[in-house]
Amino acid sequence: MNKIYIRNMVCNRCIMAVKDVLTKLEIASVNITLGEITLERELAANDRQRLNSQLNELGFEIIDDKKSRLIEQIKTIIIDLVHHRKAELKTNLSDYLSVSTQHDYNYLSNLFSEVEGTTIEKFFIAQKIERVKELLVYDELSLSEIAYQLNYSSVAHLSNQFKKVTGLTPSHFKQIRSERRKPLDQV
Question: Which H helix or E strand runs over 125?
Answer without folding.
Answer: helix 120-138
